[in-house]
Task: structure prediction
Amino acid sequence: MEHQRLLEILDSEKELLKEKVKEALIQQSQEQKLEKEAVKDAVLKAIEEERKNLEKAHAEERELWKTEHAKDQEKVSQAIQKAIQEQKKISQETVKAAIIEEQKQSEKAVEEAVKRTRDELIEYVKEQKRMVIKIDSNQRQINKVKVSTLSHQP
Result:
């Protein structure tokens, strides 16, 4: 009987231990589940944080690119303006040189025309002097003839 009672106690202890093991396993399973959830939450949080950091870095890079792009655009604009000014200066110098050349040619043409006119005028004056001398000479001859004719008349 004592033996039976010991067996019953052992069975009872065994059942009690089974229940405790079962509860411990359930608790361990729940703890693992909670731990797993906590790890999952921590990983998701880390992923979200990394995503935010990447977005922030990307936004900063974009702003930096925009700033650099704006600087480059300004440099291009300044280079274009400088090229336009240089071209305008070259054009003005070319026009000025053409005008000066045209003035020189005009002055030369005027000088040549003046010289030609002067030469023609000198030639004209010489011709007029010759004619005056010839007329004068003819007039003298006419006068001689008249005098001679008048002196031979009775």
In short: The chain has a mean pLDDT of 90.
